[in-house]
C-alpha cells in the first residue's frame, strides 16, 4: 500500500507546491510510482507539471470530492514517466462550503483515495496555504505530513501552530498521523538568521529535520513557468540536486521505519 504524505504549511510562499512537485518528480526518477494530488484551489501543482485542468474541461479533484466522478477520472499523466497528478482548478475553493453539511466531511479525501493506494508507492497531497476543511481532509487521509518552511522567525511560530493542529487531528480523526519531516527551503548559507532558525528547528525536532536544505536557486524558481519539475528543466542545478537528495532521505527513512515495524511485529 502506498504512503500518503501531505505537503503542508499554512503560510504561503514557502516553497510548498515547489516541494510537492519536485519531491514527487525525484521519487518518480527513483522508479517509484507517484501521484501528486493538487488540493489547492490555485491549481499551481497542476500548472507546474505542465497541465491545465480547465482547457479543455476535464474531471478534477473537486468533482471527485463532491461525488460527480471517481478520483481516477481526475488523474492525468505528466511528461515524466511514473509521475501523475490529480488536477485541480478554482472550483475546488467551493468545496469547503459544500462539504460543511456533509456526513463525515473530514473523511471525503480519505474515502476517494482508498481505491488508489495500492497503485502508487507515494501519494503527495499539495495542501492549500490555510488550516481549513481541505487541509483537515488532507491530514485525515495521510500517513504523515511534510512541512516546507523558510528560515524566518515568523515561520517558527507558524510551525508550532501547525504541529499543534496536526496533534488535534491525530487525537480526533487520524491516530496514525506522524510528522514525516521539516524541510528548510530558500536557504541562504550566507545569512546568519537562516543558520539560527535551522539550529532552533533541529533543537526541537531533532532527526525530523531533513538533513538536506533547499537553496535559493533561480532555475528552481523558473521551472514552474515552463510547466516542468526542475529535473526536466535543469537537472544539473543546485535545486534539482537538493530535491533528489530529499527524495533519497524519504525513501531511506521509510525503509528504516518498515524494518523497525517488521521487527516489532516479530517480537
CATH superfamily label? P-loop containing nucleotide triphosphate hydrolases
> Low-confidence segments, ≥5 residues, pLDDT <50?
none
Oligomer: single chain
| Basic shape | globular
Strand content: 5-15%
- The structural class is alpha/beta
Under CATH, the topology can be stated as Rossmann fold
CATH architecture: 3-Layer(aba) Sandwich
| Count of all domains | 1
Strands across the major sheet, in which order?
3-4-2-5-1-6-7
Q: Give the distance, in angstroms, between the N- and C-terminal Cα atoms.
A: 23 Å
Biggest sheet details: 7 strands, mixed
Outline the structure in words.
The protein has 267 residues and is an alpha/beta fold. The chain has a single domain (3-266), classed as Rossmann fold. The chain is 43% helix and 14% strand. The protein has helices at residues 16-29, 44-48, 61-65, 95-99, 108-113, 133-141, 153-172, 192-205, 218-222, 230-233, 238-266, and strands at 3-7, 34-38, 75-77, 83-86, 122-126, 144-150, 178-185. A seven-stranded mixed β-sheet has the order 3-4-2-5-1-6-7, sandwiched between helices. β3 and β4 (83-86) form a beta hairpin. The longest helix has 29 residues, at 238-266. The two termini are 23 Å apart.
